[in-house]
Amino acid sequence: MCTGKWEKWLSKMEDEQEWTIAGDPPPITCLAHLEKAAKGAAAKFRHVAQTIGKKEKWRPFQTQKYSEPIWFRGDAHWPDNYKLHPTVYRKRSLPPEDRNAQHPRQGLRTPEKFMLSRFRMEAVSRHADTPGYDEEARWLCLAQHYTLPTRLLDWSESILNAAWFGVVDQKEDEWREYLSQLWEHASGEVGERFCQEQRQKFESNLKTMHSNPAIWALSPALLNYHYVKDGPVFMLEGPHAGVMVSSAFNGMSIWDTIWATVPQRLRQRMFEFYRSNSEGDVEDKVLAVKASQVDARMMQQQACFTIHAARKPEEHDLSRETPKYYDDEDGALNQGAGATQLPEFLLKFSVPRDKRSSIRDELQRAGVHNSTLFPDLQTLAEETAAEWKAKCATERDRISRSLLSQSTD
After folding, report:
1. Which of 371, 315, 61 is nearest to 306 (CA)?
2. What is the model's pLDDT at position 340?
3. Distance CA 306, CA 293 (A)
4. Residue 134: helix, strand or coil by DSSP?
5. How far lies 246's CA from each of 185, 270, 400, in Å?
6. Which domain holds residue 78?
7. Helix, coil or strand: residue 161
């Protein structure tokens, strides 16, 4: 039945006359739906680009054969991680006094500068091939892929890789492992009571989750057009995104960074670039970028990024919905009554939480798992140990069932 819903939705998305009323896509419940999701996203973004090309006379979008890459991101959606914004701007990464503060010129004060400085200073002795000291874009990528909070948001060119990050919830898995260890070593009434309290806390966390896991589809070309009317994709090491990178390392606003780092003959052009669209001023921009693969993780994950710079916390959330508009007979745009929609460069696919395990198993059979996405010795050791532990647990269950059946007989 779900497959029929997918075929109906996909046929609407591929029909130029009906894609605007296709509605939300059906939930992803198996690996086969991922291909349909990618096709539907490509159809939607192609129609949006062609519409912009006709109305705005934007030449890159005017061709009927317009086709740009689509990026994907998986999100497991725990309570503190359900918005599309970078880790450094999430409230747990901000100083307590700045979590709701706004600073008109300097933007949000974050510990980003200090964390990057220490990381760059001490990583040389811990990593075999670090970038040169002045290669700030490469340092930012390296820090991001080793989980340092930065202004980068991870995306992948592979929907399979994104799906893995969506269905593998590390926090939930860690909690289940923790509870398993507690029950295994609990003794006496006090120990059992403590285990029960921890289980109730875990179940309470599950109930307070905002939504199911999600897989996001992003058009980098449409995002860049939305924010700066340029693109389609910038290089993180290039001059345009380089202003944002420098801002991360020097702790200054975008405006002050342009004045301090851009040569005078190019300064006015850079200001015009960042002022080029009504969607946010100089300090409120997001760019879709690609970067040099400075680590094997980037290669395996087919990594790409959005880089963010905004003064207000809500400006960092790409998934915040806006009023929905409809075309009338004259081609004008009218606001729908109370209706909202995701930005035109974004599409969301939901994954029912009870389907996580089955989709994860399918992805593993397709060759997508932790040791392929994180090709280092630590991940290999952890995955090998986890497999052996699972086999031991299965064997213990088999022996227990065998002994139980013998005692029954």
Report:
1. 315
2. 59
3. 15
4. coil
5. 51, 14, 61
6. 2-164+213-356
7. helix
Whether residue 189 is contained in a domain is answered as no
Helix axis angle, 159-167 to 356-365, nearest 10°: 140
Q: pTM for the whole thing? A: 0.80
Task: Report which residue type is found at 348.
Answer: K
Query: Max Cα separation, the chain?
Result: 91
Higher pLDDT, 281 or 156: 156
- Strand 234-235 with 285-290, pairing: parallel
Residue partners of 65: CB distance under 8 A and separation at least 6: none
User: In this structure, are residues 304 and 289 in contact, taking their beta carbons and an 8 Å threshold?
Assistant: yes
> Which stretches of 251-352 are DSSP H helices?
254-261, 264-274, 296-301
Reported as type and span, the H/E element at residue 324 is strand 322-327
Write the single-letter amino acid at 341.
Q
Would you say residue 395 lies in a domain?
Answer: no
For residue 289, which of 273, 305, 302, 308 has the smallest C-alpha distance? 305
In total, how many domains does the chain have? 1
> The tokens of 71 are what?
């990026």
Greater model confidence, 108 or 322 = 322
18 assigned to some structural domain: yes
Q: How many CB atoms lie within 10 A of CB 366?
A: 13
Buried b (16+ CB within 10 A) or exposed e, 146-174: eebbbbbbbbbbbbbbbbbbbbbbeebee
The C-alpha atoms of residue 353 and residue 361 are separated, in whole angstroms, by 14
For residue 361, being part of any structural domain is answered with: no
Query: Measuring CA to CA, how many Å separate 206 from each of 7, 175, 202?
Result: 32, 11, 6
What are 400's two structure tokens? 């227990």
Contact in structure between 116 and 148 (CB atoms under 8 Å): yes
Q: Name the β-bridge partners of 308.
A: 286
The answer to whether residue 107 scores a pLDDT higher than 50 is: no
Nearest to 363 by CA among 76, 78, 2, 34: 34
387 vs 28, residue with greater confidence: 28
